[in-house]
Design goal:
By secondary structure, the chain is an alpha/beta fold. It is built from ten helices and six strands. It is 53% helix and 15% strand. The protein has a six-stranded parallel beta sheet with strand order 2-1-3-4-5-6, with helices on both faces. Helix 3 links the parallel strand 3 and strand 4. The N and C termini lie far apart (54 Å). It comes from Fodinicola feengrottensis.
């Protein structure tokens, strides 16, 4: 079978990574590298200059959105690089940025649990390689809902921090509860203020506004 293009595959689960590599090879793709973390993904792309990247979202070390953020950086460096993100969930903070990159061409975002036909999956990869865009409808729905739900912009950790703020905890207390540094908590709080579009003013006032946004959303 003639090659469908060279691929760098990124997936932290070794069984799934090997299974995907075998599947892609069977359908004519040349898997030039199969890696298990975002740093190795970026290094492999620099080394092999593949036609296509297929990457998981959650990878070491944090298992949050490392793969997606790496994909965004790769597209910023080379807008012609075809990228398909595979995930079990929608990471809204960077999904829109990935799908908006390079005019939305040669990019895809698919949910693992909703892939039920192998040939459809392979067809989606080829469609992206040919310049198309492939996005799971559930991803589209969640991104549209983001516009009406300000908390949808926050990461899982930021939501956790905001929930603790709503309970009246100070940054120092949150540091102890989450077993992280106070600088890390401060960064999360700053991200919360920015993503909720809260105006730059006294932090204590912004904490109140952030809590109000949180309470309005959970009361729906």
């Amino acid at each position: 079978m003639p090659s469908s293009g060279s691929v760098v595959l990124a997936e932290d689960g070794v069984l799934l990574r090997e299974g995907l590599a075998g599947l892609l090879t069977r359908f004519g793709f040349e898997v030039v590298a199969a890696v298990g973390d975002a740093e190795a993904l970026e290094s492999a792309v620099a080394a092999y200059r593949p036609d296509l990247v297929v990457t998981d979202i959650r990878m070491p070390p944090g298992f949050t959105d490392e793969g997606l953020r790496a994909a965004v950086r790769l597209r910023q460096a080379d807008p012609t690089l075809a990228v398909v993100a595979l995930s079990q969930y929608v990471e809204q903070s960077y999904a829109a940025e990935l799908l908006d990159s390079a005019g939305g061409q040669r990019v895809g975002y698919l949910l693992k649990d909703r892939i039920v036909d192998i040939e459809d999956f392979i067809g989606s990869l080829r469609q992206v390689l040919d310049g198309g865009t492939v996005v799971d409808p559930q991803v589209v729905r969640q991104l549209l809902r983001r516009n009406s739900d300000p908390l949808a912009r926050l990461s899982t950790r930021e939501l956790e921090v905001l929930g603790l703020i709503a309970q009246g905890h100070s940054n120092a207390a949150i540091t102890r509860l989450l077993v992280v540094s106070e600088a890390t908590v401060g960064k999360h709080v700053g991200n919360i203020f920015a993503k909720l579009d809260l105006p730059p003013t006294e932090d204590s006032h912004r904490r109140v506004l952030a809590v109000l946004a949180y309470l309005r959303t959970i009361d729906r």
